[in-house]
Amino acid sequence: MNPAIERTTARHPRALGGDPLKRNLDAAFSLTSMVLNNGEPHTLAIKRKPPWLKARLPGGPAYEALRRRLDQHGLHTVCQEAGCPNMGECWSRGVATIMILGDTCTRSCGFCNVKTGRPAAPDRDEPRRVAETLAQMGLKHVVITSVDRDDLPDGGAGIWAETIIRTRDACPSMSIEVLIPDFKGDWGALQMVIDARPHIINHNLETVRRMYPAVRPSAKFDRSLEMLRRVKEQGGVAKTGVMVGIGERDEEVLALIDDVIAATGIQTRRRDQASQGRSGGATNGAANSSSEPTLDACDILTIGQYLQPSRNHLPVDRFVHPDTFAMYKREALTRGFKVVESGPLVRSSYHADHQADVLTEIQAQRAEHAAPDRPV
Asked: Considering only CA atoms, which of 264, 239, 273, 233 is closest in space to residue 359?
């Protein structure tokens, strides 16, 4: 057997989709014969990538230094576990996404390359190690994520909160972004994370509503929207992300954008500006500030191309052209998002430090415009 296929089979012994903690039922019928690009039973042929999907290979002194530091402290990264195509670029810049609560997920979503199964007991010392490692790295911005831990009563929220608090104490000048699971809709668990006060709370919708049964069978579209709404309701910075090319259509992506804005928007009013041009237009993917009453909705959106990690994962339906990604970005900014990263190789944490900088600039401008004593 090909070594790469053997490694994947060891990580994903069966085709993905569903919850491995639940009893597997025999299929009532098979659709195998209806899948046109089947290479062999129970696997799907991987499509050839178009020329615009090129990523930098991992390597270089900065990459190796970061890898050694993470290995030294026994930390996992989603960059490695999910096979992110941007790992070479990000690690060379000294940026990585730390993954807590182990490397084994209790769900088996059909798109994800993270190992699935029954995880080990959580490491109670992990929050301390994460905070100490990040303090040594001297970063300006960090992203922390985790696997789903449906086996734990709080979904891992306690470890999440302690990691955030310890990291804030150890790295007071660093901004913290968290990419969290849905905690099975346990709002008390979510509140623990919100109360720990990370700077950005990200929860990915991943795909359009219609595709949830195939792509995220253990999740619910409206539950994820409610998580983002609760973050905004309490004054937090909310972020979400989606993949395209997994079976959705363009009009469904635009409908998702509208759904997020409508579900998470908080009504605000700003003082009229005498001159919009005085502060200049926002750039680098940021929407222009407005003087009209508006909904302060979910702040940041990422949109990227789905890439099939292995033959045991859902197939790529289409490779979305860069021009279409540019259209998504224009529409998302027009419809209410403040910062948008949209491109074939964009992933949730891609350029997260830059997104945070742009959002900070927008928030500073809007705070100035809304000040009651600002001269007009």
From this structure: 239
Give me the residue label for tokens 């990690």: 309
Report the C-alpha gap between 289 and 366 in whole angstroms.
Answer: 7
- Decide if 124 contacts 163 (C-beta within 8 A): no
Burial of 49 (0-12, 13-18, 19+ CB in 10 A): middle
Tell me the two tokens of residue 346: 């964009």
Q: How distant is the alpha carbon of residue 241 from its chain centre?
A: 5
Q: Which of 304, 352, 358 is nearest to 143 (CA)?
A: 352
Asked whether 115 and 105 are in contact (CB, 8 A), the reply is: yes
Q: Please tell me the total number of residues recorded for the chain in this structure.
A: 376
Please enumerate in sequence order all residues whose Cβ is within 8 A of that of 31, keeping only pairs 6 or more positions apart, or say none. Answer: none
Residues 311, 224: Cα–Cα separation, whole Å: 28
Closest by CA to 313, choosing from 147, 103, 108, is: 108
Closest-CA residue to 264 (of 293, 219, 234, 290): 234
Farthest CA pair distance, the chain: 72
- Alpha-carbon gap, residue 117 to 21, rounded angstroms: 7
pLDDT in tens, 7-19: 555 655 555 555 4
Query: Terminus-to-terminus CA distance in the chain, angstroms?
Result: 72
pLDDT in tens, 277-327: 444 444 455 555 555 666 799 999 999 999 988 888 899 999 999 999 999
User: What does the pLDDT read at residue 137?
Assistant: 79
